[in-house]
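Thread: Modeling a multi-component assembly for a lab meeting

Hi all, long-time lurker, first post. My supervisor asked me to bring a structural picture of a complex we are working on to next week's group meeting, and I have zero experience with this. I have the sequence lines for every component (593 residues in total). Could someone generate the structure of the whole assembly? Inputs are pasted exactly as I received them:
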Amino acid sequence: MTDWLGPEEWQALRLSLKVSFWAMLASLPLGLLAAYALSRWRFPGRQLLNLLIHLPLVLPPVVTGYLLLLTLGARAPLGEFLGQFGITFAFRWTGAALAAGIMGFPLMVRAIRLSLDAVDPKLEEAAATLGARPLSRFFTVTLPLIAPGILAGAVLSFAKAMGEFGATITFVSNIPGSTQTLPSAIYAFLQVPGGEASALRLVALSVVIAMGALLLSELLAQRVAKRVAGK
Amino acid sequence: MSLSVSLHHDFGGFALDVDFRAPPGLTVLFGRSGSGKTSVIKAVAGLLHPDAGRIATADRVLFDGVTGRALPVHRRRIGYIFQEPRLFPHLSVRRNLTYGRRFAPRRGDRAEVDRVVEMLGLGALLDRRPGGLSGGEQSRVSIGRALLSAPEILLADEPLAALDEARKAEILPYFERLRDETDIPILYVSHSVQEVARLATTVVAMEQGRVTRAGPAVEVFADPAFSPTGPRDAGALIEARILTHHADGLTEVQAGPARLHLPRTPGTPGDPLRLRIAAQDVMLAREAPQGLSALNILPGTVTAIREDAGPGVLISLTTPAGPILAAITRRSLAAMGLTTGTPCHAIIKSVAIAQREDPRVG
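Re: Modeling a multi-component assembly
Sure thing. I ran the full set together rather than chain by chain. Output:
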């Protein structure tokens, strides 16, 4: 099983899975909150928040990476401050996870927000008249209805994290074993003579993971529609 | 338990200004669309925060504009039957029905669920999802869901408006049973005279954000000034009880000390009935008429005359059966010399049963 991938390739895959998993998990609560705020609340600055969330989608990834380096790098004030508490991002896998999380965030928020928009707020109103306090309403009515949407968002964010390259390599570089994710490894293999075979194996792996994720998120989105219709 | 509602709210261009009491039984908020009825029950539910006023039951204040105290929606203990059913699509009918129970301070026993399920005929639907139910079935589930949250006030916002006639006929009896079998105040929004005549214990008539008339249904319907949808629909309500069924196909009912004859009406002696006598179906005579085919003739005294009601006039009379209305022409009014206090006889051409579909007698 292990012999069709070299040790360096395995290392990159393992690191990518770890980075993507944590990037996805850490963005979930924030993504849910942001999607809820954008879908249900009207507040000043709502458009600005929407814009900020979507910025990584259109900004060159290298810009996002560089901005992260400027704010959270080892020499940056915020980076130094967090460093005192043992929280460091620069040139570590946590930094790769942060970069990947930010790049996948708009995809996650969009998926959750779409499913929230499909849920009639009047249902929450009905739950209120039946005696449910706000948090109960959310957990017994809204959350079950959007659960497939949340899963779809998580899958997309995970898949995006698996493929993230530009921001990651800019922010945390390409260090085998600590920040060399799947795409960085492909890039590295392509830079050395005779690395094409390794690169191709990783490319195939990437294609399979990406397609599987897209398929899964589509299936989950269909389930939202079905759930909301009460079938 | 009764509910008192007094509130003022400015919508910008439309002001709501109402003050009324809803005693036990069913109080219909009656008026055209846009008269502010729904806003009133939204304020009672806490879904609308009025600028000023006070909403309270005998022992609880739901909203007080002076102190600014407003109970949040989920603590008001109301059952709200919305115009559309608003069932939770991801839950089975059973779990929709019991949704409010877990939040109720006094958790009703299983027998209560069974009773409501039986009353609304939901037994066969319990394991289904709302998406597959018909409109009438969804309505019934939403009524049951509101009831099972152990409410202290029941609010219904035109629950029949979205249904066709057959479905309406299916749901109406359930509201009659609610009115007769529970002792909580029910606020029911409607713009249908038929629904009001059939269901209302108390009527609160609204027009452009204000209450124009409020009181017991029988009194309000007997007021010639109360013809919200035009004098054509004017007609009094009579509370009666079935006395006996005669062999010739008639049913005799007792209304106060008077007796009336109707076509055979289902029910056993002693059953209450509400009759509706349309003003257009009443003729007046100064002398006791002889040799008429009409079965129901009541002696009475004119109490009020309304002359601005369209082409004719509306006469209000007290009779032993209760107050009734008669629509006559201006010429007859002049020829008969009717004034307040004139004794006369009311010849009732037909009596409709407000509680059921419309069997009429000639």
